[in-house]
Specification:
alpha+beta; 3-stranded antiparallel sheet
Length: 249
């Protein structure tokens, strides 16, 4: 957006709120927007405190109280809109690697970097599951008062010309599967095609969409003004139907 000029005020904050509410992408705003809003609230709070001590029932006191309440409410709404978009941006960045972050201010950039790092780590660990590898650190139990038990140690492999074997009680032998040995991409058979991830895009929902199941079995319930991360083909279909708008990345 254009650089706000002059002293920060309720009207300038409301302009940012309107653009943030109506736009699918983050609004471009001053890098020091948060600092200027903080200074405005601090100044009004000090003025209100001084007035309430001398004449708490005055018209000025009531006006200051009302202005403070409206500014705080507006600012909270602005941040709610922006943080939802930032979460979706972090998800896109974690899955696809790149995302345009020029509209983030310093405080938001720190939040974005932390979210992206957490989500990227999650994607990497899920990728291990897809290849049949154990998840690093194991899967802790969610039950209250219980802890995840460590996986039992795998017995040493007995190598013979016929391959790893293990002796059974009845004298027979069985193949030993080393569950801790996880093949890398380079060690996979050449004929195996790499798993291709579906491209996911962020959309803004323009009208309520009843609950439906996607091709992969995922169930969606989408409401007007929601932001959602959807497979690109689905997002493009909804956009053609006028039910959603794909956010630029």
């Amino acid at each position: 957006m254009e650089k706000e000029k002059g002293k920060m005020s309720y009207d300038l904050i409301y302009q940012v709120y309107q653009k943030e509410r109506q736009g699918a992408a983050l609004t471009q705003m001053d890098r020091d927007f948060y600092e200027r809003v903080s200074a405005l609230i601090k100044g009004l709070s000090d003025e209100y405190d001084a007035e309430s001590k001398t004449n708490p029932s005055s018209t000025k006191c009531m006006i200051l109280y009302d202005e403070l309440k409206k500014i705080r409410t507006l600012f909270h709404e602005i941040y709610e809109y922006r943080i939802r978009k930032i979460v979706l941006m972090a998800l896109t960045g974690a899955s696809e690697g790149t995302v345009d972050t020029k509209s983030l201010v310093d405080l938001e950039a720190s939040v974005f970097d932390q979210l992206k790092a957490i989500l990227k780590k999650s994607y990497d660990e899920v990728g291990l599951v897809e290849t049949g590898c154990p998840v690093p650190g194991g899967v802790p139990s969610r039950a209250m008062g219980t802890e995840a038990k460590p996986a039992p140690a795998v017995a040493a492999r007995q190598t013979t010309d016929a391959g790893p074997k293990a002796a059974l009680a009845d004298g027979k032998v069985a193949e030993v599967v080393n569950v801790q040995s996880c093949p890398t991409e380079a060690a996979r058979p050449a004929a195996e095609a790499p798993v291709k991830k579906k491209k996911v895009v962020t959309v803004q929902i323009l009208e309520d969409i009843p609950k439906f199941a996607a091709e992969g079995g995922e169930v969606y319930t989408l409401k007007k003004k929601d932001y959602a991360s959807l497979p690109q083909p689905m997002a493009e279909r909804l956009e053609k139907q006028g039910k959603a708008r794909i956010m630029p990345t």
